[in-house]
Specification:
heterodimer; A: 511 residues; alpha/beta; Rossmann fold; 6-stranded mixed beta sheet; 24 strands; globular; B: 396 residues; mainly alpha; ABC transporter involved in vitamin B12 uptake, BtuC; 16 helices; disordered C terminus
């Protein structure tokens, strides 16, 4: 029905998100598209939905070549997409949202009754239970998702792309969604289901296509696949470059986290009794599919969020519930995963960005007054030492490339001479040269006796760098391997996906 | 081998740096030209409006443009009006730099005037102290009053636009109540306080220079001190760094260990203390007593002054003088030519609107960038502007 042939997408910043990807969808099937974060799934689907345009390649609809330049053109061709973040008007009713953009009118006014009728008819036809007259803001997430699907159907979608639809759902809501998807297919619709949850893929799909590093690994019939075989296709890439690391010289336990519990703003328990130690002179990697509590763990450890239970000790001092500044002063440095939002202030100068953790201390500040000279000198030193490609420290950080912004963050954090360095997704969105640099820096810190905690969703990265490896799944540490060498990616992948778990005793042995 | 490459690298950097310096000078020159051009266009449009409504447009417009300088007493009015405006502009610029839309200057100004006058009236003080003590009392009061919306924003996440406007309303009514019921001397049929003691009056410039400079007074010295103090505070202290980082990216500031709550709260409070000086100037310098409607909305006009100066404390005196010139010129135009007050305000508003419309400058800059060589840099720079504006939208 739809065929995408040799699709290549190169972003203006040089990132190649899709490389000669070919992808075929048959009418009336549920086709799962799986892959790790950054594998290029979303890009491929955005191309199909007209949000992004391919740099090369061709799309065929029912055998005829088509060009899809905008979402409107995609909708006109019968292709609809439901994004992870919903695009609804929260203050409108469900019916108003469904008909928005193509409203039944009564004179110059919206015909509310017609809107409600149309909505409930569609809802009945496809088994998507909604309350048409309810305000979107007041209904649960699961229902909002059904509204998004109805919106696409109302516009005449024959092919529905669902981008990680279960990420925001409870197990109960997921079951309801699956029932609705089956109903849709029964009435002749086609569904593309983007996910990295293999259990769900096995449950719902007819066929699975696996992407990795911007390329299509292959398409298989679901009945011929197992979770393990899919996991192997997802992560079994060429072996990541191996680094020459001097042997581990493990020192004292610098960080001791015990029974950390965290409940987020939405009331969901994100951390469930997380315990581990980080030792001087060792890189402890934490692997895991994103969204399994890693972000929250890092923010709890660095004082940006307050744990609801458990203790954190740094050396001999208790730093549980301390402020970010106190944690930093105790000797913790933090390379944050969301560089643009947390790691830098884009409009502030490079020099200013480099002192955010030390501006109040000498030589940068004496009796509350800042020393510009010290700030400028520090900037020059850092630019030189960390090879930041910037001609002048007075330039705003926003004028640098992603890799050089990351170098600004790294320069600041490493020059703080920490006891514990927490690096979260340190190479995300960074070019190969900067990635290499980052890895060397982490190894150097560890060899110099710093305790390094490396959190990464890039399995190849954590495996190449870590001395010891922990795996997080669903807010828990599900495995700790005392020696990361000799582990296979498939093996770790099974723990990441929650297919296998170590016993509590096995984990505690390797705290 | 290693050495030579290091040398070429640093040479390259020196060349690149020189290029950037040059580029920076060029772009600020263009900014200046564009700003001046905008003012010219604005004045032209103002003239067209005058042409359309006035009987003697040339005379009227001359009054607007040259009025404040045409007589010594008008010069005095200008100085006196600008004094308050500059102080309020400084006050507003502080919280604005932390991206807090603090509209509380009006309230702090009233509190400052009230406190200074009450202390001057009821505490017998020798010369000099007669000014210093009410001034310090007023600044303290302004600080404390502005602390309330600051605290509400920082700890309760209460919208500062609403809270500062509400507090302004409370203060304005309280001021009126106290003035009418307690401060108006018995038998006085005008609702105003008694005249303040001579020891608490700012010396008038008219007496010093022996010229008819109206009520302009030595509070201009306070303006000079305040401009320098606020500049030092914002540019040369840890607190100023904290404020600017919060303004640039609050999440980044928190991540770096800055206590955003404390800093936001203090940015309101310090602004309150500065606005209170404006109130002191009105009570002790201009009127020598408290009168009804003493602020005449100056607290809000100060916002325009701060915005025109893009919150740069060193530019606030310039924009304050400029805006005040338009105000006084407008008054004169209204009095000497047959142009109604409404039209005067329309002309003022058109001028301010055009100048505030920074899109003119940004438009020109964007045009220049797209024709430039480094497209990645442009992209990154537009990112840089996109993120804070997103933030500011949320804050407002």
């Amino acid at each position: 029905m739809i065929e995408m042939r040799d699709i290549t997408k190169v972003y203006p910043n040089g990132v190649r998100a899709n490389r000669e990807v070919s992808f075929e969808i048959k009418a009336g099937e549920i086709h799962a598209l799986v892959g790790e974060n950054g594998a290029g799934k979303s890009t491929l689907m955005k191309i199909l939905y007209g949000v992004e345009r391919p740099s090369a390649g061709q799309i065929y609809l029912k055998g005829k070549p088509v060009r899809i330049n905008t979402e409107h053109e995609a909708i006109a061709l019968g292709i609809g997409m439901v994004f992870q973040s919903f695009m609804l008007v929260p203050s409108f009713t469900i019916a108003q949202n469904v008909v928005l953009g193509n409203e039944p009118v009564h004179g110059a006014l919206l015909d509310n009754r017609a809107a409600i009728n149309a909505t409930s008819e569609l809802a009945k036809q496809y088994g998507l239970v909604v309350d048409p007259s309810a305000i979107v803001d007041s209904v649960p997430v699961g229902m909002r998702q059904r509204v998004e699907i109805l919106k696409a159907l109302y516009r005449g979608a024959d092919v529905l792309i669902l981008d990680e639809p279960t990420a925001v759902l409870t197990p109960q809501e997921t079951r309801e969604l699956f029932a609705a998807i089956r109903q849709l297919v029964k009435t002749g619709k086609t569904v593309i289901f983007i996910s990295h949850k293999l259990r769900e893929v096995m449950e719902i799909s007819n066929r699975v296509s696996v992407m990795r590093d911007g390329q299509m690994v292959g398409t298989v019939d679901t009945k011929d696949a197992t979770e393990t075989s899919l996991a192997r296709m997802m992560v079994g890439r060429e072996v990541f470059q191996q680094y020459d690391k001097p042997p581990v010289n493990r020192g004292a336990a610098v960080l001791q986290a015990r029974d950390l519990e965290y409940v987020n703003e939405a009331g969901r328990q994100v951390l469930r009794g997380v315990s581990f130690n980080a030792y001087a002179g060792e890189i402890l990697g934490i692997a895991g599919v994103e969204g399994n509590g890693q972000t929250e763990l890092v923010e709890v450890l660095t004082g940006l969020r307050v744990a609801v239970g458990g203790t954190i000790k740094l050396g001999d001092s208790d730093i549980t519930s301390r402020s970010a500044r106190e944690v930093r002063q105790a000797g913790v440095a933090h390379i944050p995963e969301d560089r643009l939002n947390n790691g830098v202030a884009l409009t502030a100068s490079i020099e200013e960005n480099l002192i955010v953790d030390r501006y109040s201390k000498p030589p940068f500040s004496r009796a509350g007054f800042t020393s510009l000279a010290a700030m400028v000198k520090n900037g020059e030193t850092m630019i030189e030492q960390y090879a930041i490609r910037a001609p002048d420290g007075a330039l705003p950080v926003g004028s640098l490339s992603g890799g050089n912004m990351q170098k600004v963050v790294v320069a600041r954090e490493l020059s703080a001479n920490p006891q514990l360095l927490i690096a979260a997704q340190p190479t995300r969105g960074v070019d190969i040269g900067a990635t290499e640099f980052m890895h060397q820096q982490l190894i150097q810190q560890r060899t110099n006796g710093v305790a390094v905690l490396l959190i990464s969703a890039d399995l190849a990265e954590v495996m190449a760098l870590s001395d010891r490896l922990a795996v997080m799944h669903n807010g828990q540490i599900v495995a700790i391997f005392p020696d990361a060498r000799g582990l296979s990616e498939e093996e770790v992948g099974l723990y990441m996906l929650g297919v296998q778990l170590q016993t509590q005793a096995e984990i505690e042995k390797n705290w | 081998m290693v050495d030579t490459s290091a040398i070429t690298l640093s040479e390259n950097r020196a060349v690149e740096r020189a290029r950037i310096r040059k580029e920076r000078v060029r772009s600020s020159l263009i900014d200046l030209i564009v700003t001046l051009g905008t003012i010219m266009i604005a004045l032209l449009i103002g003239f067209i409006v005058t042409l359309a409504v006035g009987k003697e447009p040339i005379k009227a417009y001359t009054a607007l443009l040259t009025g404040p300088l045409s007589q010594v007493n008008r010069l005095g009015n200008w100085i006196q009006d600008a004094t308050t405006l500059i102080l309020i502009g400084l006050s507003v610029s502080i919280a604005f730099q932390a991206r807090q839309f603090n509209l509380g200057a009006e309230g702090s100004l009233l509190v400052g005037a009230l406190t200074a006058a009450v202390v001057a009236l009821y505490v017998p003080l020798p010369p000099v102290l007669g000014i210093v003590v009410p001034l310090l009392a007023a600044m303290t009061a302004g600080f404390l009053v502005a602390l309330i919306p600051g605290w509400m924003k920082a700890y309760l996440n209460a919208n500062e636009v609403v809270s500062t406007l509400m507090i302004n309303a409370i203060i304005a009514n309280l001021y009126q109540y106290l003035l009418i019921n307690f401060l108006t001397p018995e038998g006085d049929n005008v609702r105003r306080s008694a005249l303040l003691p001579a020891t608490s009056a700012f010396p008038l410039l008219a007496d010093i220079f022996n010229a008819n400079l109206g009520r302009a007074n030595l509070a201009i010295v306070l303006v000079l001190i305040a401009v320098i103090a606020v500049w030092v505070l914002m540019r040369r202290t840890s607190f100023g760094y904290e404020v600017r980082m919060i303004g640039a990216n609050e999440k980044f500031a928190r991540y770096g260990g800055i206590s955003a709550r404390r800093v936001i709260m203090l940015s309101f409070a310090i602004g309150g203390a500065v606005a209170a000086i404006g109130g002191v100037h009105l009570a002790l310098g201009v009127h020598n007593r408290l009168i009804l409607g003493i602020s005449a909305g100056l607290g809000f006009e100060g916002i325009v002054v701060a915005m025109l100066a893009r919150n740069n404390p060193l530019l606030v005196p310039i924009t304050g003088l400029f805006y005040s010139y338009l105000r006084i010129g407008g008054d004169i135009m209204e009095r000497t030519a047959s142009v109604g007050a409404e039209i005067v305000q329309v002309i003022q508003a058109v001028i301010i609107l055009l100048i505030t419309a920074q899109f003119v400058i940004e438009f020109v800059r964007a045009r220049r960038n797209t024709s430039g060589t480094s497209s990645s840099r442009t992209a990154a720079a537009s990112d840089a502007t996109a993120v804070p504006s997103e933030q500011s939208r949320r804050n407002i």
